[in-house]
From TrEMBL:
<comment type="similarity">
    <text>Belongs to the anoctamin family.</text>
</comment>
<feature type="transmembrane region" description="Helical">
    <location>
        <begin position="352"/>
        <end position="372"/>
    </location>
</feature>
<feature type="transmembrane region" description="Helical">
    <location>
        <begin position="309"/>
        <end position="332"/>
    </location>
</feature>
<dbReference type="GO" id="GO:0005254">
    <property type="term" value="F:chloride channel activity"/>
</dbReference>
<dbReference type="GO" id="GO:0005886">
    <property type="term" value="C:plasma membrane"/>
</dbReference>
<keyword id="KW-0472">Membrane</keyword>
<dbReference type="Pfam" id="PF04547">
    <property type="entry name" value="Anoctamin"/>
</dbReference>
<protein>
    <recommendedName>
        <fullName>Anoctamin</fullName>
    </recommendedName>
</protein>
<feature type="transmembrane region" description="Helical">
    <location>
        <begin position="238"/>
        <end position="256"/>
    </location>
</feature>
<dbReference type="InterPro" id="IPR049452">
    <property type="entry name" value="Anoctamin_TM"/>
</dbReference>
<keyword id="KW-0812">Transmembrane</keyword>
<keyword id="KW-1133">Transmembrane helix</keyword>
<feature type="transmembrane region" description="Helical">
    <location>
        <begin position="212"/>
        <end position="232"/>
    </location>
</feature>
<dbReference type="InterPro" id="IPR007632">
    <property type="entry name" value="Anoctamin"/>
</dbReference>
<feature type="domain" description="Anoctamin transmembrane">
    <location>
        <begin position="195"/>
        <end position="384"/>
    </location>
</feature>
Amino acid sequence: VVESWSFLDTVESNFRPLVVIELAKGTKEETIEWFTKRIVDKKANGGAQLLIKPLVMENGVENIYLVGASHLRLLLGAETVGLVKECSDNSMRTFTYSSRKTFKDFADDNHNFLTMAECQYIIKHELENLRAKNEKMIPGYPQAKLYPGKSIVRRLLTSGILVQIFPLHDREELKKLRHSWYGRVKVGYQPLDDIRCYFGETIALYFGFLEYFTFALIPMAVIGIPYYVFAWEDYDKYVMFATFNLLWSTVILEVWKRICAILTYRWGTLLMKRQFEEPRPGFHGVLGVNPVTGREEPVYSSLKRQLRIYLVSLPFVCLCLYFSLYVMMIYFDLEQWALDYHKENESNFSSLMLYVPSIIYAIVIEIMNRIYRYAAEFLTSWGKKVLHSS
């Protein structure tokens, strides 16, 4: 694989765009040049080794860029993210470039071996894991600080330089999917495999569940119609319906678990290994070497992490719990006072006073929620500064 990376060409005049990058209007030229260079630069130099070209608008503004990758780059990226594919012997294994010939439907000229969703996921993964090496700031924006290991895309987003990154539609594939999915009047099952290839496993599972639940409601609807139409005087029949409802809800859940496992196994997500994943883009730390994969990635001292948990996070959580319990006890005292006051007076005013503790408690809860949210954001920001200073 290392040899394949070294021979991978990053210059290709004609490539299939898969992902769109939108930069803020007026982004400085040196920033664009630096960012695009990091995208096309080789992996050994800290780049993503992808392909990129600007989309020139009618007004001549170039703030939208199309990102793609060569076929070889996508295959190597599939190994990096740990995609699971079907082998020729019908087993499911993690894809590796060295054993690519053993996988079903693989051919050097078969550019459909990886689905569109998988290709876009690979590019998104590589972009999100572009990390700073020796840069102290984003070129052209001194206020946007960087340090080794910081996610470049995350910093560009928080600084407002990068507006958004989103997958690009393929009109021809979308037309085919529309025809096989909802363009026909014929009632039938949804093309879940085609949906998965285009939109990914998450969307396909969502529509798969909708389809399954729609069919699962049929027996409940058939049995429930007589209960809705006729007013039964024998309440034992309603007990029987409630019992059937309980059994039905349990059975459909267990059956869906089985169907979900079948789909995820067939699509390779059930066996997808997570131990070799890149750190999430929001992770902060200094650049180091992962002892398992041997790749350079952000790391953080385990001792410092434990100290922060036990000396900052845990005391803060305990303090919040104590304050919440204290407020709750005050609410109980107010409620008891309102009940005693109502018993003594038995008036319209005393009846209204019964609602006062609940109203006060609801207002206090809303205020506390805002305070907790602010405290969480402050501690998160403080944590980033601590990691940066370390």
